Amino acid sequence: MSIWFKPYKLADLTAHIGMAKHLGIEFTELGPDFLRGRMPVEDRTHQPHGILHGGASVALAETLGSYAAMLTTDPDKYRCLGQEINANHIRGVSSGFVIGTARPIHLGRRSHVWDIRIVDERDKLVCISRLTMAVIEIEPKN
Prior knowledge:
The protein has a single domain (10-137), classed as Roll (Thiol Ester Dehydrase, Chain A), CATH 3.10.129.10. It is built from 2 helices and 6 strands. Strand 5 (111-120) and strand 6 (125-137) form a beta hairpin. The protein has helices at residues 18-23, 54-71; strands at 26-30, 35-40, 78-89, 97-107, 111-120, 125-137. The protein is elongated.
């Protein structure tokens, strides 16, 4: 059973604005209860030692979790806003892509908690992140 508000298709999703665009984040798979995407590990996402910047991992995690949260709610009635994120950086990566998968831990009426696991191209764990999203009702316009 799908958790999404309506039957979205991967083609409906684009990471074409802001930080997601700048970092080269793209969505790669929309499953019944997860959203997956990838980000290149290159100059834009490196820290000074030539490995993936922890902030870039967090940006990937928040992008995936935020979009996933939005897909579970009625976009005409609710906005989903990041409230808290944490990340544990497990392994360094210097090239290729990292792949993140966002899955819900809790989908409440006022808040969501998402688990985002980021792996390298060999499926080795790079980062684990947890994102809390506030689900805010849109004020009707008079």
